[in-house]
Amino acid sequence: MFEILEKTQYSDKVFKFRVSAPAMAKKAQAGQFLMVRIDEEGERVPFTFANWNREEGWVEFIFMVIGATTMELSKLEAGDKILDITGPLGKPTEMKKQRWAVIGGGVGLAIAYPVARALCESGSEVSVIMGARTEDLLILTKQFEELPLKNLFITTDDGSVGEKGVVTAPLERLCEAKEIDEVFAVGPVPMMKFSALTCDKYDVPIVASLNPIMVDGTGMCGCCRVTVDGKTKFACVDGPDFDGSKVDWDDLCARQGSYRKEEAEAVAHLQSENNGGCKCQS
Amino acid sequence: MPIVDGKYKANNKEPRVPANEVPADIRSKNFEPVDTGYTTENAVEEANRCLDCKKPFCVQGCPVGINIPEFIRHIREEDMAAGLATVRESNMLPSVCGRVCPQENQCEGSCILNKTGDDPIAIGQLERFLGDMTPSIGKAPVCKPKNGKKVAVIGSGPSGIACAGELAREGFDVTVFEAFQTGGGVLTYGIPEFRLPKEIVKREIDGLKDLGVTFEYDAVAGRLYDADDFFGELGFDALYLAVGAGLPKFLNVPGENLPGVFCANEYLTRVNLMKANLFPEYDTPTKHGKNVVVFGGGNVAMDAARTALRLGADTVTLAYRRTEKEMPARIAELHHAKEEGVRILELVSPLEFLAGDDGFVQKVRLEKMELGEPDESGRRRPVRIPDSEFELDCDVAITAIGTNANPFASMAAPVNLNEWGYIETDEDGRTSNPRVWAGGDIVTGAATVILAMGAGKKAAASMTKALLDA
To answer: What is the arithmetic mean of pLDDT over A225-237?
Structure first.
C-alpha cells in the first residue's frame, strides 16, 4: 500500500499526488514512469514521474481525469492509500548538454516539467513551449517560470492565455532562428506528430515521449507496441522516449483509441455506482 | 485392492478411469474448471491399475523424479497423507503440475502399460488428487533452523517458487521479488482459471509464506533494486534470477498493430491477471470478438482460443502453419479446444491484417501452406503454396507464436547472456556472477512448468552448498 501524502488540484480535472514510496524515490529519473492500480478491481495505468525526493522518500505524478480510473483516483485524498504502485519503469530520458526545446501539451506538461528541470540542472540551455486547449488546462506555469529558461512560450487553442494557436508556431520560430539543437516533446499524439513534422522540416532531431495503452508495463504483454522506423517497439521497455521523426503516429493514434467504447462504459458504470448502484429499474 | 493368492495383482487390463470433465457445451461458457478431478473412489480404482514396477520407467520420465509407484501405492492403501508426503518430497506444487504437466511426454508417456497395449496410468490425475487434498491433510514441511544467510529470488513463477521453497526448508531467509501485484508468474497471468484455478496458485504461495518466505510485490528487480542494493543495503548473500521468457514474438506482417490484434500474452493477461472478463466490475476491459482467429499451435494458443470462446465468440478459428500432428500443444488441450468448438485451420499462414472503416481489424488475409522437408526441429517445414490467398473475417486476432527472453534478464545483476538474451548457466544454475544463480525459462527459453521448477530445486541445492560450505 502506498500512502498519498499530499494532493494538489491544478484545475477542474488535473491533480497531483505525492505518494510515499521510498525505494522508488531513490531510483526515479526524468522520463520514467510508474504504474498505479488503485484497488483490487483496478486496472494498471501508467503515469510519468512529475517529481521525486530521494531524502524524503516520495514520488509525484500528475493526472487528468479522462476515464474511470482517473475519476476514481481524483476522489482519493491525502491519507488515503493506493493498493499498488510499480516503478520506476521505462528508460530515462537522455540528457545531452546542448540547446533544447521542451514541448509539453496538456497533461504532458507534467512530464515536460521534470525533463526541463533536469536539463537545466545539467547545464543545458532550455526553451519551453507550453500548450493547452485553454487556460484552465494549463498546468505548472509557476514551476516552469521558476526554472532558469532561455525562453518560455505559452500557447492555447482559444487564446485564453499566451499566444492563440498551437505549439508548432513558437517551435517553428526557434527552428528558424537556429536556437535549438534538439527537441523533447510530450503530449497528445497530434501535437507530437506536428512537432515532429516541423522538426523534420528544419532537420532538428526530436525525442517524443509516447503514451500508448499499457497493461503490465514490464515488456510482457505487447499492448504498448509502437512502430518506430518500421519496427515494432515496446514503449514500456524500449521507451517511452523514441525518435519522433521515425514514429508511426497514425498507428499510435489508432491503438490509443482501441478502448474508447469500453472507457465510456466504465465511466457510466462508475457513475451509476456512485449514484447508489444499479439503474436498470429506473 | 485386488488381491490374488495373497498378493496385489494390478487391474491393468481395466480401462483408465476417465477424467471428470464438465460437458463441453457448458464449460465453454464459463471460466470454471474444465476437469473437476478424481474422487477418492476414482483415484483408488486408477491406483489399482498400476503394476508397481520394480524398475519404474515413469520415474525416469519425470523431470523431478517423483517416486510415482510409491505415492500410487499409498493411494491404493488409502493413506493419502503418506501419498501426498511422497509427492511433496520431490515436487512442491503437485496441484499445479498434476494439471499442467505434459504427462503424455513424461511420466505417462514412459509408463510400461503403453507397451502392453493398455492405457497408461493417469499419473497426472493421481498427483493432482493428492495435491488438492493439501488443505485437509497436508503437513507443513519442517524447516531447518535459520542459517543466517539471505537469498533474494527474482520472479515468483514456478522456478522462483520452487527455489524459494527449497531454500526456506534449508533454513535460508528468503525474499521473493515480484514485478506484478500478485504472485505465480505465468501460472497467474498465462494459464487460464479454467485450467488452473488461481486459488490453487494462491494456496501454494501461502504455503511458502508459512515457511517464512517473504514476498515483495510491485518490485521490478533491476529498476527498483539493482545488484548494489541487493548485495549492499538489502544484505542478500545470493540471488536467484527466474524472470521468465515473457517478451512476445510477433508475426511481422502488415496490420499487426491494428486495434483488435493482440498477442496472446496481452489477451490472457487482461483476463487471467486483471479479470477483464468481469469488466466493468473490474476496470480492465478487453475485446469480445465475434469472429476470433488465433495464430499458433501451442498450449498458449489453445488457452487463448478457449478464452475467446468463454468471452462469447461466435466462431474461434485456430490457424496453424503445419498440421495438428505437428502442434506443440498437449493432446488433451487440443482435444478440449476442439470439443468446445474451436475450429482448427491447418496449413495456413497470415499475410496481412486488414482494417474496417472503424480502423479496427476486420479481416485477415492468409495463404495456404504444404509440408516440405523436415527443419532443425525435426518437424516438416511449411512451404507456401503460390496463388492460394484467401480472407477470413476476424474482429479479434491473437498471435501465440512464442516468446523471447525477458528484457529484465540481467538488469537485477550483471550476468552473461547468450546471443538470444537468455542467461548462461552451468548445470546447477550458476551464472557468470559468483553470487547469482538463474533458472527456468530465462535460461532454457520457453519450456514447461515442471522443468522450471526442477531448475529452481537444483539451483537451491547448489546455493545451499555454496553458501553454507563457504
So the answer is: 93
Structure confidence at residue A279 (pLDDT)? 47
Cβ atoms B66, B87 nearer than 8 A:
yes
Longest CA pairwise span in chain B (Å): 78
CB-CB neighbors (< 8 A) of B265 in chain A: 220-222
Burial call B355-385: b when 16+ CB within 10 Å, e when fewer = beeebbbbbbbbbbbebeeeeeeebbbbebe
| CA dist., res. B411 & res. B436, Å (int) | 12
Confidence of residue B139 (pLDDT cuts 50, 70, 90): confident
pLDDT class for A281, splitting at 50, 70, 90?
A: very low
Residue B222 makes CB contacts below 8 A (sequence gap 6+) with B408, B410, B411, B412
Tell me, what's the pLDDT at B172? 98
CB-CB under 8 Å, A232 with B283? no
User: Which positions in chain B touch A89 (Cβ < 8 Å)?
Assistant: 220, 223
Residue B12 grid coordinates: 491393468
Shared domain check, B154 and B130: no
| Domain match, B232 and B289 both | no
Average pLDDT, integer, range B323-339: 93
Round to whole Å and give the CA distance between B87 and A89. 40
Say what the ipTM of the complex is. Answer: 0.92
Q: Specify the range with the lowest mean pLDDT, choosing from A240-249, B85-94, B198-207, B402-411.
A: B402-411
Distances (CA, A) of A162 to A132, A166, B216: 10, 10, 48
- B225 lies in the same domain as B300: no
CA distance A128 to B119: 74
What one-character DSSP code corresponds to residue B392?
Answer: E
pLDDT at position B411 over 90: no
Query: Are residues B284 and A269, on separate chains, in Cβ contact within 8 Å?
Result: no
Are B296 and B216 in the same domain? Answer: no
pLDDT for B169 beyond 70? yes
In chain A, where the domains are located: 2-89, 99-273
Q: Which residue of A has its CA nearest to B264?
A: A221
Contact across the interface for A257 and B259, Cβ inside 8 Å:
yes
Per-residue confidence (pLDDT) for residue A276, from 0 to 100: 61
Which residues of chain B make contact with A52, given a CB cutoff of 8 A? Answer: none
pLDDT more than 90, % of chain B: 86
